[in-house]
Design goal:
By secondary structure, this protein is of the alpha+beta class. The protein is built from 4 helices and 8 strands; from the N terminus they run ββαββββαββαα. The protein has 2 domains: 62 residues, no CATH class; 58 residues, no CATH class. Strand 4 and strand 5 form a beta hairpin.
Length: 167
Amino acid sequence: MRTLVLNAGYEPLNVVTSRRAAVLVMRGKASVLAEDGLPIVAPSVLIPRPAVILLHQYVRVARRNPGPPSRRSVLRRDRKQCGYCGRSAATVDHVIPKSRGGDSSWENLLACCGPCNVRKGDKTLEQLGWNLLTTPRVPPHHMWLPAELDAPREIWMPFLDSTALPA
């Protein structure tokens, strides 16, 4: 089971195991805001399983510019949808091919399905007469939240600001 950790300012900070969350609560570093139905069974005690905890002290998070894109981060940014046809994507393509001077930047990489990737090859969009369904950009701030928040658990929803979640 996973537990949502909220910073002292109630913004989502992380998702941890229920065991780690229980340790934070027992050490007095966090409070339980919501519980799951199944308790954590220890040799001498039953501990309510936390679903959402709130840290007592604010944790300052360093917000850095996104690093270089990876296959995984591009697929997450594009929600695993092909930027050319809209089908399910499992690979990444350079919009301007590397052989034609394209770089591996956020603005030139796009999630792509296998058939479109093979069909495009090292051609440009103009040569194929294709249009992009979405323009590749540097991902927004919520992309740096835990991936579990892409599909949050129902019990977490009252604690999540809808502006912090991906659309």
